[in-house]
Each structure stands twice: as structure tokens, then as C-alpha cells.
Design a protein that fits this description.
Elements (H helix, E strand, L loop, with lengths): L13 E5 L3 H12 L4 E5 L4 H17 L5 E4 L10 E4 L15 H18 L4 E4 L4 H12 L6 E3 L2 H16 L6 E2 L2 E2 L7 E2 L5 E2 L2 E2 L6 H12 L1 H9 L6 H15 L4 E10 L5 E12 L2 E5 L6 H29 L1
Parallel strand pairs: 1-2, 1-4, 2-3, 4-5, 5-6
Antiparallel strand pairs: 7-10, 8-9, 10-11, 12-13, 13-14
Helix pairs in contact: 1-8, 3-4, 3-9, 4-9, 5-6, 5-8
This protein binds adenosine-5-diphosphoribose.
Length: about 325
């Protein structure tokens, strides 16, 4: 059983969102209301995606679009998706680090990716579930597809947060701010002030070091700050906006350069890892990885972040191996 509505759009892009929680449903809303794609919302709780889909379908009477929205618990309804977004998992709770989520979410991610890719073997997978960089690696292994077709959403969100804090601090429009954040989506992320600009001017020319360090710290704690304010639940508006921008660049072959968790094969001196770096996002997934010229301290910070991700990947693999025996 599913809840659906017919579309008048031909040859529509189709995005399946696995996990119709806060991030998944908000992303679904953004995609249909921006008229970017038809959407399938799938969740392990069968009633939730069906109810959300019906609610979004009814909103069409006001929003005036003809996008199809399906709510389901059956992977057959995700068949032939162009893009699969994975948000399934447990969200971070107060006091819980992203790595605390590892055990629970590794099993969920491997399980849902296998089922989703079986229905859409040519799809691109966008991972959102935390801990992000580790889950992206596990998703790639589980999907068994070329690494350029798998990527993780974190850098766009972290850069959006950094950019917001820069705009607030300088009292300028966010329109002219471009921030850059490398590394894993966690405490060891690497915000890059030298590559963060206001109308092309590096913020290192606009703020003193202490101010920049304060904004960097707030960016690193961006997710935790919201968790502690909300008490129950975690951020979802900015994560959904970030995933939506990535989906749009991929589906419409916009070739935007966005920070994303992508597979590295020697770039930045790192191999066999998914970690946040600037990459070109288009219809084939990742068409190129951009290598920034890093200072020694920045390079060390990126490698420290990579080391932490590798440890978590090993821990997750050991756990999954243990579960399979
Ligand atoms: N299959 C399908 N859906 C699942 C499964 C599964 N095996 N396990 C859990 N889910 C669903 C839950 O039922 C829930 O609806 O995933 C959804 C997760 O939604 P929320 O708990 O609302 O979490 P959300 O805030 O959306 O965050 C999702 O994104 O940003 C990250 O850290 C965040 O990992 C978390 C993910």
C-alpha cells in the first residue's frame, strides 16, 4: 500500500529518500515545492511516510506544483530512482557524540542501501546519516558501485553555518559570503578562513584571529549547539537545505563546486577514504575533486580528521563483521 498522486511532468527526475524523519521529510518538501524532482519517501514506520506524502500532496493545492510524492515502506516503489538520499538512522541526542551513533546507524545504513540500490542500480547515493563520513564509506561498500556515484552531505552544511556566523559577525548579507570547510563532519572538521570570503575578500583581511577562532569553534559545535537548545531532536532545516542544493546540482548537471564527503584516491595525500573536500557535482556524481593549496597546519588538521574517520570505519566494520557471524 502506498499514498501517491499522479504527475503531469514527463521524464521526471526521481529522488528516493530513505528515512522520512525530520531531515528526510523536509528535504522531500523542498524538492517538490522547488519543482526539482518527484519524490519517494520511505521509512521503516509504514504510516509516517504515507501520512507525510498525503500531507505534501494536499499542500500542492496551495503550492501549485504537479510533482509526484509517494509515501511507502516498500522498496519496490523506489525503482529507477536517479538519486537515493539516505537519512535513515537514529538522530543525535543531547550529550551523544556523532560517534556514539556509529553502532546503531552502521547496521541501518548497510541494510537500507542494499535494498535501495537493488531497485535502482544506476542511482547516485547521497548519504546524510551520521557519523557522516563513516556512513558514506559503508554505503559505498554496501552499494558496490563506482565511488564517484556516492557522496556525503556535510561540507555544505558546515560551510553554511560558518558563512552564517561570518555574515552575522560582519553585519553583511549572506549573499556575498562563501565559506569553505574541509574534513570530517565532526569535532575535527577543518574550516578554512583563508578560503572563506566576503565578495572575494578573504575573512583573514576582515577580522582578527581571535574573532575568526571564535566563529570556527561555533561552526565546529554547530550541530551540538542546536541539539542542546532543542533538547529532543537535532538540526534539520539547514541539513535539508544543504542536501537539496547537492541534489539540484547533480540532477540538473549544474557542475557546482561544493564541499562534500567524496572518495579520495591520492588527493590531499589521502586514499581509500570519504572525507570533505571541494568537488564538482553533476549528473555522473563527482566529476572532479579540487585540490586546494593547504598550509602545513591545515594539511595536518585534515589528516588528523582522516585518521579519526579511518578509526571509526574500522570500528564499524568490526561491528558489522561481528553481527554477520
Ligand atoms: N529503514 C528506514 N527508515 C529507518 C530505518 C530503517 N531501517 N531506521 C530508522 N529509520 C527512520 C526512522 O523511522 C526515522 O523516521 O529514519 C528516520 C530518521 O529520522 P529522525 O529520527 O527524525 O532523524 P533526522 O533528524 O531526520 O536525522 C536523520 O540525518 O543529520 C542526520 O544525525 C542525523 O543521522 C541522522 C539523520
Amino acid at each position: 500500500m502506498m499514498t501517491t498522486a499522479t504527475s503531469h511532468c514527463s521524464q521526471s527526475a526521481r529522488v528516493s529518500i530513505i528515512g522520512a524523519g525530520n531531515v528526510g521529510s523536509t528535504l522531500g518538501q523542498r524538492l517538490v515545492e522547488k519543482n526539482l524532482a518527484d519524490v519517494v519517501l520511505l521509512d521503516i514506520q509504514p504510516g509516517r511516510p504515507k501520512g507525510l506524502a498525503l500531507d505534501l500532496i494536499e499542500a500542492r493545492g496551495v503550492e501549485r506544483h504537479d510533482r509526484t510524492i509517494i509515501g511507502t515502506d516498500d522498496y519496490a516503489h523506489t525503482q529507477n530512482s536517479d538519486l537515493i538520499v539516505i537519512t535513515a538512522g537514529i538522530a543525535r541526542k543531547p550529550g551523544m557524540s556523532r560517534d556514539d551513533l556509529l553502532k546503531i546507524n552502521a547496521n541501518i545504513v548497510v541494510n537500507v542501501v542494499k535494498q535501495a540500490i537493488a531497485q535502482s542500480p544506476n542511482a547516485i547515493i547521497l548519504m546524510v546519516t551520521n557519523p557522516l563520513d563513516v556512513m558514506t564509506y559503508l554505503a559505498w561498500e554496501a552499494a558496490d558501485i563506482p565511488p564517484r556515484q556516492v557522496l556525503g552531505m556535510a561540507g555544505v552544511l558546515d560551510a553554511a553555518r560558518f558563512g552564517t556566523f561570518i555574515a552575522l559577525e560582519l553585519d553583511v548579507s549572506i549573499m556575498d559570503v562563501n565559506a569553505m570547510v574541509l574534513g570530517g563532519h565532526g569535532d575535527l572538521m577543518v574550516p578554512l578562513p583563508r578560503y572563506s570570503t566576503v565578495s572575494g575578500i578573504p575573512i583573514t583581511e576582515l577580522m582578527d584571529e581571535l574573532t575568526i577562532e571564535r566563529l570556527v569553534e561555533r561552526t565546529r559545535n554547530g550541530g551540538a549547539e542546536i541539539v542542546s537548545l532543542m533538547q529532543a531532536g537535532s538540526a534539520y532545516f539547514a541539513p535539508a537545505s544543504s542536501a537539496c542544493a547537492m541534489v539540484e546540482s547533480i540532477l540538473y548537471d549544474r557542475a557546482r563546486i561544493l564541499p562534500a564527503a567524496v572518495y579520495l584516491n591520492g588527493e590531499y595525500g589521502l586514499s581509500d577514504i570519504f572525507i570533505g573536500v571541494p568537488a564538482c557535482l553533476g549528473r555522473s556524481g563527482i566529476s572532479q575533486v579540487l585540490e586546494l593549496d593547504l598550509l602545513e597546519a591545515e594539511q595536518i588538521a585534515l589528516h588528523n580528521s582522516a585518521t579519526a574517520i579511518r578509526k571509526s570505519i574500522e570500528a564499524a566494520k568490526a561491528l558489522l563483521g561481528g553481527c554477520q557471524t
